[in-house]
Amino acid sequence: MQAAVHQIWMGGPPPDDIAELMERCRAYAKRSGAGYTLWDEQRVSELPTFGSTAPSILPRSLAADMARSEIVARYGGLYLDCDLELTRKIDYLFKLDHIITRENHGGQMTACFYGGTAGHRVGENYFRRIERYVADLAPGAMANTGITGRVLLRKTQQQTNVDWRCVCRHDDIPKRWFIVDRKNLNVVAIHYAAGTWKGKPYKVIE
Question: Closest Cα to residue 183, out of 107, 110, 93?
């Protein structure tokens, strides 16, 4: 996949703790030889397909799902949620065609740590599924915030017959998950629920 890291933040300046995590992500991207793009409302509005609708979609989680699916499908690279902390260099991951992450609790898919090569069949399949889902929403309808990852990404994984590379492993600490590379069992990132991070990094690996 392209050596690029993408994050999305819409809705004004991020809280200080989330901004700190985003800055760490930017630093690890640079150390991994990758470009870094933070997609705000202006950048998202320039996306060819979802640009005119994503910034106004509520809840924000669906807007971010829409945007990330198009970003990875069109431009390639690795998408990370903004409440996610990288714990090591990730340059070797850019040699992969795609990355899908599966939760160990319940076996559901999650797009918090998701990537692929531009134009790859996995990314294209996921992007088109979300496109159809959004097109079928009734005006003013509240979207199901869990369907894009748990249902649509799962269907993508099944239809394209690809395996997941990473596991999102629940910790005993509430609202914290380890993103684990299944091939070498490295913890590549920690995913915190927004608002629960207290400023103490899990681990720093050079």
Answer: 93
How is residue 132 annotated by DSSP?
A: H
Angle, helices 121-135/60-75, rounded to nearest 10 degrees:
140
Listed in sequence order, the DSSP H helices in 100-153 are: 121-135, 147
Q: Which two structure tokens, joined as six digits, stand for 185?
A: 């069992």
Q: How does pLDDT run along the chain (206 residues), one tens digit per residue?
A: 999 999 999 888 888 888 988 999 999 999 999 999 999 989 999 999 988 887 777 677 778 888 999 999 999 999 999 988 888 888 999 999 999 888 776 667 888 899 999 999 999 999 998 888 888 876 655 566 567 776 778 888 888 887 877 887 766 555 677 888 888 888 888 887 644 444 444 333 33
| Rounded Cα–Cα distance for residues 151 and 39 (Å) | 25
Note the Cα 32 to chain centre separation in Å.
18
Output the CA–CA distances (angstroms, integers) from residue 22 to 9, 13, 38, 82, in the order listed. 10, 12, 9, 6
**CA 94 – CA 98 distance, rounded (Å):** 9
DSSP 8-state symbol, 171: P
Q: Provide the 10 A C-beta neighbour count for residue 136.
A: 8
The CA distance from 140 to 24, in Å, is 37
* Rounded Cα–Cα distance for residues 53 and 206 (Å): 40
Q: 171 with 178: CB under 8 angstroms? A: yes
